[in-house]
Design a protein that fits this description.
By secondary structure, the chain is of the alpha+beta class. It has a single domain, classed as 2-Layer Sandwich (Ribosomal Protein S5, domain 2). The chain is built from four helices and five strands. Helix 2 runs parallel beside helix 3. The radius of gyration is 18 Å and the shape is elongated.
């Protein structure tokens, strides 16, 4: 099997994934998964597409992630892995779509507006 690559995005995080046949090793930015994401929840989020297809020990995965925070990065990685698995086997697409792993979450942070403390929050109004 040749190298299969895909892209995943979430908030301002971008994840590029390279999948090869292997033993289930996940490397993120040249570090192990458990080292990059110490939280068990974030590790679980990254592995969700593999666990759904029961392919956790079939592929070696290399990820390059930049931008955003740890939650956005883990969800971008999940989308990238799901897209790569669909490139490998198109029959898995319906299974991954049912779980919601094929949909790009397009919600972004709304920009701050001038004359306000945040995007929509207004300064406190004082009548007197």
């Amino acid at each position: 099997m040749e190298v299969v690559n895909a892209l995943g995005r979430r908030k301002s995080a971008v994840a590029r994934v390279y999948v090869t046949a292997g033993t289930g090793k996940i490397t993120i930015n040249k570090r192990d998964l458990t080292e990059y994401f110490p939280s068990a929840i974030l590790q679980y989020v990254v592995k969700q597409p593999l666990e759904t297809l029961e392919a956790a020990d079939k592929y070696d995965i290399t990820l390059n992630i930049f931008g955003g925070g740890f939650t956005g990065q883990s969800q971008a990685a999940r989308l990238a892995i799901a897209r790569a698995l669909v490139k490998i086997n198109a029959d898995d697409k319906s299974t991954l779509r049912k779980q919601g792993f094929m949909t790009r979450d397009s919600r972004e942070v709304e920009r701050k507006k001038p004359g306000r403390p945040k995007a929509r929050r207004r300064f406190q109004f004082s009548k007197r």
